[in-house]
Design brief:
Layout: H1 10-24, E1 56-66, E2 70-78, H2 84-97, E3 101-112, E4 115-117, H3 121-133, H4 135-143, E5 150-159, E6 162-170, H5 177-194, E7 200-202, H6 215-220, E8 223-232, H7 234-241, H8 245-262, H9 271-282, H10 289-292, E9 296-301, E10 307-316, H11 328-336, H12 345-368, H13 372-379
Parallel strand pairs: 1-3
Antiparallel strand pairs: 1-2, 3-6, 3-8, 4-6, 4-7, 5-6, 8-10, 9-10
Length: 384
């Protein structure tokens, strides 16, 4: 009988592997091959049995003119979708020749969203005012649980006799979902002990919309709000992409309307592609793509024919410390970008935004030049 203490030994893993072979008849020739000690995955996965080997391609150089990311980067992308890396690489070449991508982080918030049940709507209103008056003490209670988390403020929304709140934090180089949960729990205990009118509270009311895209987070930010922008001459579109800025702008207008009609939360082409591939390569929580891939795209056709293009990602949730970032393969990928560990998260944020912009321009060009389907036929077919 295995205990929790020895669950990550080679012997424990072997028992589980033998169990799978016996029950399924599968030899596990590949799942069981990995290069690290099983002990390193404690805290990342339970009942460890092996690894999923996802191919990693390299795109670049990506030229970033950011406030934190400056220079050329080679971007690891883990994917099984043929043409994806090639497409992002092509976009990076286009933007490189145009002088690179300018990136700007606009906001930084991670939330936990408790709801408080009060005796009446008037009590809920009074309690909202009390929270404002006692914010310094609440902040002290919350931050007593963390070295890096900082409570910035509390948003408040009433409905009936309930007060929905959003506790906004900065979380350093961690993504911060666990950090904010622990800090907000301590803050709620402090509040409950000092405000007897609170009948009940629930630590997460679904107003943080964790791992679900939402309008509130697109407007108010969850994670990092980052904008990437570039201006590309028409000559480069014609030479590298075999497309044209006037045609690109016309297509952008059409796709904006199509997105509006369909009700999407993203008027771009495929930001989830690049974000997911980078997330998997670098040990991010892949489920956060649900929020992180939302995007606002804006384009302008300049009088001289240049094409201004920007992508704003309002809820990019990333980390360079904690979670899966310390696993051996994922750490190497972050180190390739110069982002692993302390003070790396803002560099990483800007690299991802810049890569997304390049991917958007590449796919948009492929569509207007009618090369999209042809590219998949040539490079994206793998049918065993």
């Amino acid at each position: 009988m295995l205990t929790e203490a020895d669950d990550y030994t080679h012997e424990a893993v072997q028992i589980r592997q033998d169990f799978v072979r016996e029950r399924t008849g599968v030899s596990l020739s590949h799942v069981t091959r990995y290069s690290f000690d099983p002990k390193v995955v404690g805290g990342n996965v339970e009942q460890f049995v092996g690894v999923a080997q996802v191919p990693i391609g390299l795109a670049g150089p990506l030229l970033v003119n950011g406030e934190h990311a400056r220079g050329e980067y080679y971007v690891p992308m883990a994917t099984a979708e043929g043409t994806l890396v090639a497409s992002y690489n092509r976009g990076m070449r286009l933007v490189y020749e145009a002088g690179g991508v300018t990136t700007t982080i606009m906001a930084d918030h991670m939330q936990r969203a408790p709801a408080f049940v009060m005796p009446s709507a008037r009590e809920a209103r009074a309690f909202a005012g009390w929270l404002d008056e006692h914010l310094p003490e609440i902040k002290e209670a919350a931050e007593s649980t963390t070295r890096t988390g900082k409570l910035q403020g509390i948003e408040k929304y009433t409905a009936g006799r309930m007060l929905y709140t959003r506790f906004n934090y900065t979380t350093g180089d961690a993504a911060g979902q666990n950090l904010t949960g622990k800090a907000t729990q301590e803050a709620c205990r402090w509040i409950r002990a000092r405000y007897p009118a609170v009948e009940h509270y629930i630590l997460e009311s679904n107003f943080a919309t964790d791992k679900k895209s939402s309008q509130v987070n697109m407007l108010h930010t969850r994670g990092k709000r980052v904008t990437a922008e570039a201006t590309i001459p028409n000559e480069l579109f014609r030479r590298i992409m075999r497309s044209d800025t006037a045609l690109m702008f016309r297509a952008r207008q059409i796709s904006n309307l199509g997105g509006f009609m369909s009700g999407v939360n993203n008027n771009g082409a495929h930001s989830a592609n690049g974000i997911t591939a980078i997330f998997i390569a670098t040990g991010q929580d892949a489920a956060n793509v649900a929020e992180s891939s939302a995007a606002y795209v804006h384009a302008e056709l300049r009088p001289n024919g240049d094409y201004y293009y920007s992508v704003t990602i309002p809820s990019l949730i990333v980390a360079t410390y904690g979670g899966g970032t310390g696993l051996p393969t994922q750490r190497e990928c972050l180190e390739m970008l110069g982002c692993y560990g302390k003070d790396g998260v803002r560099v990483f944020t800007e690299i991802i935004a810049a890569a997304v912009l390049c991917g958007e321009l590449s796919l948009g060009s492929a569509i207007v030049s009618e090369e999209w389907v042809e590219a998949h036929d040539l490079y994206g077919r793998n049918r065993p």
